[in-house]
Write a structure and sequence with these properties.
alpha+beta; Alpha-Beta Plaits; four-stranded antiparallel sheet; elongated
């Protein structure tokens, strides 16, 4: 009797807990891989993106395979949906950590921007400044292109200079020549330098 109960318990545990948990984890992994793959594609890492895509689809097939085997188990559907939602969150966190590429920061301020320009240049950022005219009078416009990993530092300088300054951030697809500060990259990002020779030409 005890062995029968043990078998039933093991089967129920496997069906209602272990399988949904595996589906949940697999879905987190494949959605996260998908996010990273899109980043690699946009950065031109055409040899690395297919490798990530291979594992993305492989994990997805395993997850959907378990779903098809357990169509009568509603917990599996919840686990699949929950894993997708969590995978988006994890993927965004990974994208933040990777900090690949460059961002153009445009600052528009009614305050004279000479001090901001000086601070940015002291921090080894390339800066271009021009005079402009806004709806309320003359303004100064400052442009700088920085590695994504440096955005927080530059924004901190802008806010310290003028808390009310208007600024925008724009993704930069390709940067060539010009003055760019050295990127402060983490170990994983540094390892991507290996794939730079394989980047597609622009």
């Amino acid at each position: 009797m005890s062995s029968i109960l043990s078998n039933i318990f093991s089967t129920e545990l496997y069906t209602w807990i272990i399988i949904p948990l595996l589906i949940f984890v697999a879905r987190i992994a494949d959605v996260s891989f998908g996010t990273v793959r899109v980043i690699f594609v946009s950065r031109g890492l055409k040899y690395l993106a297919p490798v990530v895509g291979f594992f993305e689809i492989l994990i997805w097939l395993m997850a959907i395979g378990q779903i098809m085997k357990n169509l009568s188990n509603p917990v599996c559907f919840i686990a699949y949906s929950g894993g997708f939602a969590m995978g988006n969150f994890v993927g965004m966190c990974i994208a933040e950590k990777l900090s690949l590429g460059f961002v153009m920061i445009r600052v528009i301020t009614v305050k004279k921007a000479s001090e901001l320009v000086r601070q940015l240049r002291s921090a080894e950022y390339g800066v271009t400044s021009i005079d402009g005219h806004g709806s309320e009078g003359d303004v100064n416009i400052v442009f700088t292109i920085v590695p994504r990993s440096e955005v927080k530092s530059v924004v901190s300088l802008i806010k310290a200079f003028s808390p009310k300054a208007f600024y925008t951030l724009e993704e930069v697809g390709h940067v060539e020549k010009g003055f760019l500060p050295p990127k402060n990259t983490n170990g994983f990002t540094k390892s991507l330098n290996f794939f730079k020779p394989f980047r597609k030409s622009k």
